Structures are given as C-alpha cells and as structure tokens.
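Entry 14. Structure prediction run on the chain below.
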Amino acid sequence: MLKLQQMMRAMRVMSSELELSEAQFGELSELIGIASVIVDSDGAILSINEMAAGMLGFKAEELRGTLLTRLVIDGLSALEQVLKPGRRADNPELFDLVFRGRSGRKSILCVIPQYLDHSDGATHSVLLVLSEKTSRSALLQTLQRSEPELQQFSNRLIAAHELELKRVSSELHDGIGQVLAMIKFMVEDAARHVKGGQSDEGGRILDETVLRLREAMSEIRRISIELRPSSLDDLGLIPTIEWHCRNYQNAYRDVHLKLELNAVEAEIPVALKLDIFRIIQEAMNNAAKHADASTVTLSLQVEHANLRLRIGDNGKGFDLDQSEHEGGVGLKSMRERVESTGGRFSIQSAPNSGTTVEAYWSLVP
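Output returned:
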C-alpha cells in the first residue's frame, strides 16, 4: 500500500501545482481509472467522479453537494476522524466504510484518504479514493501502470500553462505597459505646462491623455475577454464563436473565413463550451500566424447524435509525424482538451496540403 499512497501524494501535489479545481481533479482521477470523491471538513461532497458515484448506485450530479456521511452505515467514526478540522498526516491510514446505496444494497469499500493542499496553506478538503475490498491489488496495478501517463499529462499541462502565462505577459508588456508609460509622460508634460502658466496647452495634452486611457481600457477588456469570454456564460457558445470570427476577420483581412454553424445552442453540453472555444482559438490562430492560409473553414454541427467540430485551412501544412515527435504544445493541448472530455480528436496535415483539425463528442448519455 506504500506505493499506492505515494501515487496519491503525487497526484495531490500535482493538483496543487497546477491549481486544479476539485472537479478537474476528480476528472483526472477518473481518467487514470480510480474512483474518487472530494469532501470538505463537514463531509459535504465537493466533487465525485462517475466511477465513485456508480459504486453507490448514483449519478455524479445527484451526489454533489450532499453529505457523504448520510450514506455511511458503518465506519462513520473513522471517516469523522479523517475529516476532523486541523487533522493532518502525510500517510493517513486507509480504512473501510459500509455504504447504503440508492437501492438499499450495502457496499463495503476500502477508503484511501489524502489531504488536498490549497494556495493559502490551509487544508479545506480531503480526497477519498474508493475501492472494493477485493480490488485493492487491481487498483494498485492501475495506478502503477498510469504513473508514466500521469507524469506526461502533468508535464504537458505545465508546459501549456507556462505558454499561456508567457503570452499574457507579452500582451501586458507590449500593449498595456507601453500605453501606461505614454500616459505617465503625458500627465507629467501636462502638469509642467500648467505650472508654467500654459494652461491651454496643458488642457490639450490632458484631452489626449483621456483618449489614451480609453485605448488602455479597451486593451484590458480585450485581454480579459480572451482569457475567459463572459459571453460564453451570458449568451452561449454560438454567439461567442460569431464574435470571435468577426474579430478574427478584422485582424486578418487577407484570410477568407467560411463559417458553418449548424448546431443548436441547447444541444451543446455546458461542460464542453469553453474547451470547444479554446480549440477554435488555437486552430484558427495557427492557420493565420503559422500556416499562411488564405482560407479557413470553421464548422460546428450535430450529426447522428454526435457534436462535430472541424477547422480546416489551405495553408502550407506540416509533417504530422515530425510535429508529434517534437511535441508541439498547441496540438497536444487541443488533443488533451478533446480526449479529457470524452471526445475523439484527429488531425490531418502534410507539407503544402493544408491542415484539418476535427473533434467529435457523443451526445448520447
């Protein structure tokens, strides 16, 4: 069991370093084949993946926000000790719990606890890995097999995160930073004119400064929207894509954009909307900045209970095998987004033959 606890500690540390939410951490644990639930100090379920919920006869969404303790019919004292405020151990003891599921059937599960670290240094939640008592060795083998994949996944997430931080840093330095520096000099110049009795000239400079401030506010709004478009929550994915395409056409006037949006907003799962938008951003930017494409086609539609996303261009393309070998962060990021949400991802490209990125998600529950 030592190896199992070491693996869980590694996942816990990765969660803290990457600032994963409880829901994202639950999804990650399910990806590598383990059942997990995250609870707060009161025993309320913050996140539970489908594998863990299925052990109790529920869907995950039915249990989020409820008290795990209400399902425990034996072993509650051991659970309460783990959840006790201020309690902390690097190697908390695993224990057994007896649950009563939806149908009333009793389930005896082995529970492996791990405390989750938070950015403020406090511990507010506990990860509980659930395993049937007869499956402990199988769970250990699953974690051992998944260790290399988990490390690669962590490395790719960190690389993508650092790339995004670099992009935002460049935007702030080259855009906002320079505008604010200009505004500073203009205000100083206006103050000097006013003190020198040249109030008219000082007023004229201040009027220009107001215009520069408006430009800075617009730039900040643009960066903010790119980081997380509020229209995704307020209006939905389709209007957000249309807004992005209008901005894209204004920025790349030499690129002809063909837009095919045949999906209905209500058909698109909420959990997919941000990932779909990020994939569109990445693929379209690649087409304009790296592929030298003159035509880009964006298609989002529902076909035979599948949501299909396709972004194609007529650019210079690339050697797909070489790109995969060298590990382009953008391509891997798109693939990770699709596959981590249960979709299928494919990309077709060759030198001088353009590039096509496709993703499919099943809409059948």
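The first strand starts at residue 35 and ends at 40.
Filed with the rest of this week's runs.
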